[in-house]
Amino acid sequence: MWKQSELKIPAQINQLKCSVVCAHPWVPELGQHTKSGGYISPLNAISYLGKKMLENGAGTHNIIMMICENTHSELLSSLDAVSSVLPMPELKQVRRLAQSFGELEQVKMQLPDVLSALPDPITVATETTRQALNSARIEAAKLEAAAAASVSSITTGLAGFLHERTAALADIASAMTELQGKTAKAWFFNMKGPALTTAVELVKNLPHPDAVHTAAILFTGSDLSALEAMIG
């Protein structure tokens, strides 16, 4: 079922690999365009993603993240908040398109080829997830190095190196703490099982059915536990 949750970077983060499909007003043949902007309802966006689930390549674990607002400014604000936690290229693209809706008629967009299968799985790596993963690796290396240092005497030069290293690790830890302090609200649908069952269930009890500014992302794969850990 749909649930509004907070998106945030967890203390322990793992790599996420899955297929990603977006639904927003500027997807070809999706949404309505006027001089005042692009519009799409939650139902149309989610129905589009439901059809995508039934194509070749869909996994047994599917999560949809959706932002649906009543005004253009609210959509931009929500996109900014979510992108600060998970700055995916897809979200940034929607943000740019929404911001420049007045110029869309003059911009020629390259339409993707029509495929009968979902995109190949990719490693979903963003600035925040990469930084969190690097922080975890450095923390492990710090513990390992500390154990080795306690066995042998430390020279003056090594002590200086360790001091600089400690300062660098403190900076990384501070940045990680700042990342973990960022949160953003969005709507999520999380379900495991046959894609057909998920596609049927996700259109039930949609939040804010009257909203006209919607952006949604489908994550589909065999294991989305890394993304689940980010959903509070």
Describe what you observe in this structure.
This protein is α+β, with helices and mostly antiparallel strands and 232 residues long. It has 2 domains: 2-124 and 183-228, no CATH class; 128-179. 42% of the residues lie in helices and 22% in strands. It has 7 helices and 8 strands, in the order E-E-E-E-H-E-H-H-E-H-H-E-H-E-H. The chain has helices at residues 42-53, 72-85, 89-99, 127-151, 156-180, 195-201, 225-228; strands spanning 2-8, 17-23, 32-34, 37-39, 61-69, 122-123, 183-192, 213-221. A 6-stranded antiparallel β-sheet has the order 1-7-5-8-2-6, with helices on both faces. Strands 3-4 form a two-stranded antiparallel ribbon. A hairpin with a 2-residue loop joins strand 3 (32-34) and strand 4. The longest helix is centred in the middle third of the chain and has 25 residues, at 127-151. The radius of gyration is 21 Å and the shape is elongated.
